[in-house]
Structure formats: C-alpha cells, structure tokens
Design goal:
Strand 7 and strand 8 form a beta hairpin. The chain has no helices and 11 strands. The radius of gyration is 13 Å and the shape is globular. The strands form 2 sheets. Strands 2, 4, 5, 6, 9, 10 and 11 form a 7-stranded mixed beta sheet that branches. The chain has a 4-stranded antiparallel beta sheet with strand order 1-3-8-7, with no helix packed on it. It is mainly β and about 120 residues long.
Length: about 120
Amino acid sequence: QVQLQESGPGLVKPSQTLSLTCSVSGGSPRTNLYYWSWLRQPPGKGLEWMGAYGYGGSIYYNPALKSRTSISMDMSKNQFTLQLSSVTPEDTAVYYCALGNGLGSAHSYEYDYWGQGTQVTVSS
C-alpha cells in the first residue's frame, strides 16, 4: 500500500520561501514510473498542478509558477520536496503531493495515490 505524507510549516510570511516535503512509503519499482507531482487548491478554487518529478530525473513546472518553483528528489529517502519562493497571500492553499500518470493534469482522477494534504497560510 503506497502512502504519501506531506510535511512543512503551516504558516509562512509574505516574501518568504515555502518548503514542503512529501515522504512516500510502501512503494515498488512501479512507483518510480509515476510522475511525482505537487498540486494545490486555494480556498474556493479548483486544483492547480504545480510541477512534477519524472522517471529518469526530468522535472516539469507549471509555466505560471516556474520562476518561483523548485522541485527536488531524494530517492534514498523516498522523499521529494517543493520550494515556492516569494510567496504572497494568494499562495494560501492546501498543498498535495500525488503519484500518477497525468503530467500537468489538475484532474484528480489522473492520480493513483495522494497525500492527505497540508494547509499552508501566507500571512504576516
């Protein structure tokens, strides 16, 4: 049973960098074939795909967020991280990590495994 768990601060001040980690357990070699993705859902809005780490080490970003986003992977720990710089209150959202085949998709059905989500609030 594949399980994902997001971790990181729940409150970040404007202009700072948000850092989140997703820990993956119970995986198999097949798990490595998925896109390991970050998504978020602001209050009252739909899901937004932020970026993904793909098999072989390719990293993909949402063009709208690319200048502020960095995704990295530590395969030895089965963890991947998200950093979002220069945050504003508009970055307040529930952040999710997910594994699936839908690169760039914001449709939940494209993903087979999800973390429970972590609320991040940007406020001074």
